[in-house]
Amino acid sequence: MNVLLSCVGRRGYLVRYFQEALAGTGKVVATNSSADTAGMAAADEAIVMPPVADPSYPMLYATLCQKQQIGLACSLFDLELPVLAPLRDRLAECGTRLAVSSPSVIDLCFDKWRTHQFALELGICQPRSYLTLAGALAAVSGGDTGFPLVVKPRWGTGSIGVEVAHDADGLVATWQHVKRALSHTYLDSMHGRDRDDGLLVQEMISGTEYGVDVVNDLEGGYTACFVKQKLAMRSGETDAAVTEKNPRIEAIMRQVAQRLGHVGVLDVDVMRRGEELHLLEMNPRFGGGYPFSHLAGANIPAALVAWAKGEDPDPAWLALTPGVEGYKETIPTLSRRTEL
User: What pTM, to 2 d.p., does this model score?
Assistant: First the structure.
């Protein structure tokens, strides 16, 4: 069993988790468009690939899986997910289980407006949201919402293009600024959306923020949920967190997972304001906060490897010890990269 982690970036810790899960029975192969990253340095074998927008990318990916005898393939980058999802049957023919959700799930999660509607349909609290600048300004004028308001890409990833406006003039300026700024990022070229329909304005929710790992098996069946209260953030990722048992959030996430039917890990952001629990975003991949779950006893990499082998995971891998507080740190990693 060899494991492929594509678009591995800085996630050297995930490479090590999968190496531990394999326990010498296979290797972890990492790919990235740049060779000089922590994930590539930590891998048993590191292979530079073209950017995911390259027309040859799907063919090269499938060839790589066959050549490297990959049994389990995981993507760690939002914009790679819709490129890989159509390859599921092709990869299965050469023995590769793809831990990537269906195109419909990926599109729903990537489209923040569809995520908003999905949550409302399930009765989950949502920030007031508007698809147009005129709609947001009218809502402010009519007293339906107030400042501060968040302007963000409707189709986005990470914290790219997310800005806060504190008054009406600032909202107009922020809308125009984000619209122009996106034209200079890969978000504009990757999905070619009309920028007049590409932004979203949302009520800014303040409160206690949680990151949740929602785990389904490789058939999309709900398995587990790991809740962490975020204590500190840096560059859009969780820098410090503490695990907790939270039946209310767990019940909501079970409902989300069963309706969505995602594959593998769903990274979800939740904000508690008073007694309300607001679902903010969903990302159908490992999130930057997963190490805090792993530190507290969870082992999603081992579970994924077991499912890919057709085995049942150890129940201990799908449980979490509450009250474990963790902090991220940067550790220099010795490179294992070979020139190909």
Answer: 0.91
